[in-house]
Design goal:
- This protein has 255 residues and is α+β, with helices and mostly antiparallel strands.
- It has a single domain (8-250), classed as Creatinase/methionine aminopeptidase superfamily (Creatine Amidinohydrolase), CATH 3.90.230.
- Helices cover 27% and strands 27% of the residues.
- The chain has four helices and 17 strands.
- Strand 6 (96-105) and strand 7 (108-117) form a beta hairpin.
- It is globular, with a radius of gyration of 17 Å.
- The protein starts with 7 loop residues before the first helix and ends in a 5-residue tail after the last strand.
- Bound molecules: 2-amino-4-trifluoromethylsulfanyl-butyric acid and cobalt (II) ion (CO) (2 copies).
């Protein structure tokens, strides 16, 4: 499968959608505190996205015959990704929550995620968040022209496993552009020197999903939420990155 390289116009549009996605996420994060529900966070995100004239790329996103019913993904503790805001899910002191914001603006998509503490969390959870965020940074540094996708994958896996955590296998990062999920797939595990070669003008969503316990996951009864099989905590960080001859450029930064 060929990997789309963006035109200069496409890249200009990607800069806009990614800046909006990042600004929404930065503002949303400020609302995380004990007592708020995951539904509240979804509704706040809905309003923020609309305030920039953008639209949620998650809402109505179709897999098979099912459509995603929320504006962002909110995933708590053992939930890995694709959590749906719920009025009865009240965040408590000591939880961790992943916020994944994906917006479309002018036909182009920006995708980013962070995992944040709710109140005070244990040192073990702080370590999980820190290792996952660092794995993302190290993966991004590998998004260099003439490297291969496997260089990103292996770097993330090695960092995570060297700290005793595991990388999720069932979900992967991805190219992103006029569609949310484009080639190439970007696994968070693999071997250096394998996979598609990185060219200038690719826009990649790199997103390590890291479990404190085993790597296995299951989908919950709501048909969307992915959680760890062993009930261990999971963290997720994501940026949309542009590849250039001058190295990787993170597009999902607030402006
Ligand atoms: N933001 C997710 C990603 O990183 C995808 C959202 S799936 C949806 O790829 F179902 F919520 F739309
Ligand atoms: Co995402
Ligand atoms: Co993504």
């Amino acid at each position: 499968m060929s990997i789309p390289e963006k035109t200069p116009e496409g890249i200009a549009h990607m800069r806009e959608s990614c800046a909006i996605a990042a600004t929404v996420l930065a503002k949303l994060k400020e609302h995380v505190s004990p007592g708020i529900t995951t539904y509240d966070l979804d509704q706040i995100a809905k309003g923020l996205i609309a305030s920039y004239g953008a639209r949620s790329a998650d809402y109505g996103y179709q897999i098979g015959s099912r459509r995603f019913p929320a504006y962002i993904c909110v995933s708590v503790n053992e939930e890995v990704v694709h959590g749906i805001g719920n009025l009865r899910r009240i965040l408590r002191d000591g939880d961790i929550v992943s916020l994944d914001v994906t917006v479309e603006y002018n036909g182009y998509i920006g995708d980013n995620a962070i995992t944040v503490p709710v109140g005070r969390i244990t040192p073990a959870l702080q370590q999980l968040l820190q290792v996952t965020e660092r794995a993302l940074q190290l993966g991004i540094e590998q998004a260099r022209v003439n490297n291969r996708i496997g260089d990103i994958s292996a770097t993330i896996q090695e960092h995570v496993e060297s700290h005793g955590f595991s990388v999720v296998r069932d979900l992967v990062g991805h190219g992103v552009g006029q569609s949310m999920h484009e080639p190439p797939e970007i696994p968070n595990f693999g071997r250096r020197g394998t996979g598609p070669k990185i060219r200038p003008g690719m826009t990649l969503a790199i997103e390590p999903m890291v479990n404190a316990g085993g790597y296995r996951t299951k989908t919950l009864a709501d048909g969307w939420t992915v959680a760890t099989t062993d009930g261990s905590h999971s963290a997720h960080f994501e940026h949309t990155v542009l590849t250039t001859d001058r190295g990787p450029e993170i597009l999902t930064l607030p402006r």
